[in-house]
Input
Amino acid sequence: MGRFLLRRLLIAIPAVLGISVVLFTVLALAPGDPFAEMALNPNVPPEVQANLRKQFGLDDPIWQRYFRWLLAMLQGDWGFSFISRVDVDALIWARVPVTLAVIGASQVLALMIALPVGIYSAARPYSWFDRIASTFAFVGFSLPTFFTGLLLILLFSIKLDWLPFVFRADIPGTGWAWWSAHIKQAIMPVLVLGLFQGASWTRYVRSAVLDVIRLDYVTTARSKGLRERAVILKHVVRNAMIPVVTLVALTMPQVFGGAIVTEQIFRVPGIGSLLIDAILRNDTPVVMAVTFVLSILVILFNLIADLLYAWLDPRISYR
Amino acid sequence: MANGSAAMHERLLRDWVDDVGAGRLARRDFVARLSAIGIAAPLAAALLAASGVALAQPQPTYKPTRRGGGGTLKLLFWQGPTLLNPHFGIGAKDQEGAALFYEPLARYDADGNLVPVLAAEIPSRANGGISGDGRSTVWKLKKGVRWHDGRPFTADDVVFNVAYATDPKTAATTLASYENIAGATWIDAETVRFDFEKVSPVWQRGATIKIVPKHVFEAYGGARSRDAPANLRPVGTGPYRFVDFKPGDLLRGEIHRDYHAPNRPHFDSVELKGGGDATSAARAVLQTGEYDFAWNLQVEDDVLTRLEAGRKGRVVACPSGDVEVIQINHADPSTEVDGERSSPTSRHPILGDRAVREALTLLLDRKSIQGFVYGRAGVATPNFLNNPSRYNSPNVKDEFSVARADAVLDAAGWKRGGDGVRVKDGRRLKLLFQTSINSLRQKVQNIYKQSCAKAGIELELKAITPAVFFSSDVANPDTYGKFLADLQMYAVAGRPPEPTTFMQWFVSWQAAGKANKWQGVNRGRWRSDEYDRLFRASEVELDPVKRTALLIAMNDLVCREHAIIPVVYRPSMYGLGRQLVAPLSGWDTALSSIAEWYAEA
Output
């Protein structure tokens, strides 16, 4: 187990380095530069722009910039945003709580929908419940989030005037007022993301459970006289969860990465909106930091998924 | 001819100004006469003030009779400020954020006139602020102004700001706003003098730059500027004190109880939320009333009109100098000269013919473009220099006539070919028209293509993603600086109201090319000795009447020679909640007047 872990971690190092090279090159080759906005302002002469480019080392060759970035990153220096003139880690940390809260809540909602609905549908395939659940699931993951987001805004904010559609991270106040304001503004983004994710997960859970439920050992468990509830929860679900765990583990980095489109619609100040703003303004250090952390998280959660298999299925061993 | 009309204007204006000064002509009649020759009312203010005829300072009406009590003012920006040091602002959004906390010596009002903020009065000839030789401006500072930390604001701070921003190591983006300022001199604690390098009529230089406190930023000049903690925690003189800032997202301020203007500000706190898109920002103010103010509504006008039907708010259009133009390439984009296409030394084989340019101008249906594309967000104009209205020329007419365009082209020897497209000397009248990807501009492209086709001109349309089109990337052929097409359309930013920078657009030494890495602002590469001469004269002409006449003559020359085709001038569009009263100006940041904002009961 220990050796397995070590080996996996060592393999991850070249992967991470490779990812960083690709990211950096793509960003460097993309058109535009962080000070492009200045070019449109007649009061900022081109010399100022050139001077800033020089100061921030943007005129050096790509490989020099890459190694400078890598060395700094190894020393824990995440760099410095060209646009805000703030350290990148400070920018990211400011956005983490909101992202975790909103995206985390939506993933929990998704799981809370997907697990019971998926399992119940599979236990009674082609029943009325299953058909209705499937229809809703297809509708749910066919509608893009920007569409459902706008629909909810039109309904709840404009027609009914119940919920605000501009998300504010720091609401003044304490106690119940604070909580209710936060919950009210989070309802729509969490619903949009949670229902979308939940819809597709429901289908996965259903098919995973269906694969297992017809196996002989399940029939054996039933013929032993176990109650249906025990058969499903103890025997079927535990085995059916293996592919679902992989899926959920791999989407966990999203909790950190945020949801770009939904965050933009509801103005949720999460990592996703930070990333899209940074990309639009060519703020390379921020884009690098966010995408790099995301790729590390993907690798990490892959590893965690592998470790979880062993717990769910003792037949899987690590050598 | 241009000199002739400039001289005529000047003589007339001068006689009238003298008459007002001597009491022979009422001020109201003076304004009426000016509008008769096509120059609007605000010119009166400028001309009379500059000529030593006393004039009351324009005062915005402000009703609240005590400080505070207005609750929270909620501002919605689809682009949130990312930094708060006014000397580092990259775009307009950053200047807006800084405007809550920092103040300049003076700000521009809606007519493009200066209103004192930290200054006690606006310099003029009469009060001795503007020197007769055009070499310096003396600013008297307001007494009793305190920084948010309680320290007094003095001339030292103003002197420090000039030194701080003009140090190249600071990498300040305000560097150019202090252009031609050799330095600031401390005269006494309440007086400071800006000395100019060259004689210049632009005495306003540096007036609208927000001032940061010396005692906070002194230790962080030059290369250390980025380490200053106050870059993110501003200490200013403004109506609001800093509370909290999350770059790109949220900015909060609370009332500054020691603010220097009486009964101001009206609101107890202010909250600026950034992010999202312009349309939903408009919706949050106009339709749901969730916010009080939406910034820079670059939204199609019919959408705004529909949102306004909610009656929760209204759209305000403020005239500014921004003008949307179709730029003509006077250099040849198809031939390489010294390894460079569109070289400023070359001449366009088709557009070098004035008749073609005249036809192109006649084929632009500006009225329809205003009516069907821009609405309130674009006012049809045949002039390049439109605002402030004192500089607006009455001599250029807007004419749309396919028949006349046909006649002009026929007379110049462009004969229709078999496919309806005109030909001369074996050359087809076919032009490449590029712009940035933008639904409004692309609609204009299509309207123009249709009317050109009627007159036998074939337009090929091209739209380029804005990040590329507006970039200064030397390696990319699709930038507006390189202009490797025949026509291109975009908006020219016209701030400040003082049009010297703006009129550099046609001077020969600004022609964009390889030599200046395509950074010159004369991207059409039009050259005219007459224009150069007029521009040079306007740079040193201290008499405001003569100077106005010169600027109008420059505009007329550009339009008469069809060096460029102006389309519409574009007011700044803002969304205001029903109760909010805000004296907005298209010449300054929207929040420059934030101290004067209040909500009607």
About this structure: Confidence is low (pLDDT under 50) at residues 51-58 of chain B.
